[in-house]
């Protein structure tokens, strides 16, 4: 197994150990520090993080729910592999879910909701200027899931969340890729402006254009 980043610096004192470990392993997988196919032995992870195997097991179960690891019984746990065909299907699924979601949500938008979205984008700009691409992807997920949450389709939230997570993982893992982070963050203002009209057609057109930026540049291209 690849060495687990800065395992020794993780602090477990103020929150549940499993949550802290989950967050750190998730970050390493999404950023590509842990590669597809890498083994993740419970005893090894526990030793490097200075925690119990029970804590590791809890974190790995959550990563399995995200589709980031595959738990194979006696074969152990490995980092999952997402192939090009799966990536393409997730991108198309994302487009379908978000366009239908924004269509339902458009008439339910109020000023308080728009202020919440604006706050997320302002934070995206801040982390983009700091060069923190992982934080930017996390905020991007929050932005899109917040809009989708207004659609009233809670059973589909987890599906969209997984699509976004894996598509970001593919983007971050592309070798030699560079991305203008601030431009990526600022692009979200167009979606907010469209939602401000409360018009479903306008909002759908904006979110479609936003997501199609990814489709036009390829799955491993720039994030939406």
UniProtKB/TrEMBL annotation:
Residues 15-82 form the HTH gntR-type domain. SMART domains: FCD, HTH_GNTR. Signal peptide: none annotated. One of its GO terms (molecular function) is DNA-binding transcription factor activity. CDD domains: WHTH_GntR. It comes from the Bacteria. InterPro entries: GntR_C, TF_FadR/GntR_C, Tscrpt_reg_HTH_GntR, WH-like_DNA-bd_sf, WH_DNA-bd_sf. Keywords: DNA-binding, Transcription, Transcription regulation. SUPFAM superfamilies: GntR ligand-binding domain-like, Winged helix' DNA-binding domain. PROSITE patterns: HTH_GNTR. The keyword Cytoplasm does not apply. Transmembrane segments: none annotated. This is HTH gntR-type domain-containing protein. It comes from Skermanella stibiiresistens SB22.
